[in-house]
Design brief:
Number of strands: 8
Order of helices and strands: EHEHEHEHEHEHEHEHHHHHH
CATH class of the largest domain: Alpha Beta
Structural class: alpha/beta
Shape: elongated
Largest sheet: 8 strands, mixed
Number of domains: 2
Strand order of the largest sheet: 3-2-1-4-5-6-7-8
CATH superfamily of the largest domain: NAD(P)-binding Rossmann-like Domain
Number of helices: 13
Strand content: 5-15%
CATH architecture of the largest domain: 3-Layer(aba) Sandwich
């Protein structure tokens, strides 16, 4: 210890300074590692690096790799194979470097060119959505991380890194990464779509019906429609996570085919595409709820309206 400071355990390089890379870089620095270099090409990335990692040098990719004992590859899934191939071709990464990528759909197979050069391959994916806000960093200590490694030594390293930043590590088999990632995309991305579709429909239903003292229903986020949907959606999510199938309520779960048909008519008048999405989601709900036949008839035969 020098002047009250603990020496860094690992020097970290981050490629690149996007939402995920900088958030994890901050988390690793809080765990007393040091992010010595990062790559940042776009103006947004350079600004993000300056804000989140102000003491970190912004360097070309090979120079970032050459300085790192722990190299974090936080690029979009589609860019990962080319990045790895380029790093292997330039021999920028030293043998013994811990190379971690954050892609959800890829395991360690994509890192094979660097593994062949003596690197320790790890796939560590935070099961969290990143928007670029400071909340991204605050959420990491409560996030689960899917870890895939080559051997038990790799798993021990991956587990330690996740635990150091306050996350919860869990193993994902190499051959299960795509299914794992699809499940998370379904939970996150489609949830956003369903909620925003509901908000849009509610805005249409409420526009011009405001009470004295309420703001006019508009299209800006955070208004009356969001205040109505928010508590309902949050309660439904918590019920689903805590109670499973028992969380299902509403006309499909009750077997109320007439109400389902009415919903489809109203949504069809407001937005035919939204009506089709409602039909698809209701059909899946009906399957889960083992709804009666007349509900399936409404959902599988467009235009069918039970008496």
């Amino acid at each position: 210890m020098v002047d009250g400071l603990r020496p860094a355990r690992l020097t970290v390089g981050v490629i690149s300074a996007g939402r995920v890379g900088t958030a994890l870089g901050v988390a690793l620095e809080r765990a007393e590692h040091v992010v010595v270099a990062c790559s940042a090409i776009s103006r947004q990335s350079r600004e993000r690096a300056a804000r989140r990692l102000p003491d970190t040098a912004v360097l070309p990719v090979p120079d970032v790799a050459g300085r790192a004992e722990l190299l974090l590859l936080a690029v979009p899934d589609a860019e990962l194979p080319a990045l790895i191939a380029g790093l292997a071709a330039t021999e920028a990464v030293r043998a013994g470097t811990i190379v971690v990528h954050t892609s959800g759909m890829n395991g360690i197979g994509v890192l094979a060119p660097l593994t062949a050069r003596g690197c320790i391959p790890l796939a560590i994916h935070p099961a969290m959505t990143f928007t670029g806000s400071d909340e991204d960093i605050a959420r990491l200590p409560d996030t689960c991380f899917g870890v895939t490694a080559l051997d038990e030594i790799g798993y021990a390293i991956g587990q330690a890194l996740v635990l150091e930043i306050g996350g919860e590590p869990f193993r994902v088999r190499e051959d299960a990464r795509m299914l794992y990632h699809a499940a998370l995309a379904h939970a996150s991305n489609h949830l956003v779509t369903v909620v925003l579709d509901a908000v849009d429909a509610l805005r249409s239903a409420l526009r011009g019906q405001e009470l004295l003292g309420q703001e006019l229903v508009g299209d800006a986020p955070g208004g009356l429609a969001e205040r109505i949907v928010g508590p309902l959606a949050r309660a439904s999510l918590e019920n689903a996570l805590q109670r499973g199938q028992a969380a299902l309520t509403g006309p499909v779960a009750r077997g109320d085919a007439a109400a389902v048909a009415g919903h489809l008519r109203a949504l069809g008048e407001a937005d035919p595409e939204l009506a089709q999405a409602y039909r698809s989601n209701s059909l899946r709900t009906a399957q889960r709820a083992h709804a009666p036949k007349d509900v399936f008839d409404v959902l599988t035969t467009p235009g069918t309206n039970p008496s």
